[in-house]
Amino acid sequence: MAKPVSIEVWNPNGKYRVVSTKSMPGTRWINLLVQQDCRVEICTEKKTILSVEDIIALIGTKCDGVIGQLTEDWGETLFSALSKAGGKAFSNMAVGYNNVDVEAATKYGVAVGNTPGVLTETTAELAASLSLAASRRIVEADGFMRAGLYDGWLPHLFVGNLLKGQTVGVIGAGRIGSAYARMMIEGFKMNLIYYDLYQATRLEKFVTAYGQFLKASGEEPVTWRRASSMDEVLQQADVISLHPILDKTTYHLINKERLSKMKKEAILINCSRGPVVDEEALVEHLKQNPMFRVGLDVFEDEPYMKPGLADMKNAIVVPHIASASKWTREGMATLAALNVLGKIKGYPTWSNPNQVEAFLDENSPPPAASPSIVNAKALGLPVSKL
Ligand SMILES: NC(=O)c1ccc[n+]([C@@H]2O[C@H](COP(=O)([O-])OP(=O)(O)OC[C@H]3O[C@@H](n4cnc5c(N)ncnc54)[C@H](O)[C@@H]3O)[C@@H](O)[C@H]2O)c1
Ligand SMILES: O=C(O)[C@H](O)CO
Question: Taking every annotated instance into account, which residue ranges of this chain make up the domain D-isomer specific 2-hydroxyacid dehydrogenase NAD-binding (predicted)?
Answer without folding.
Answer: 130-322
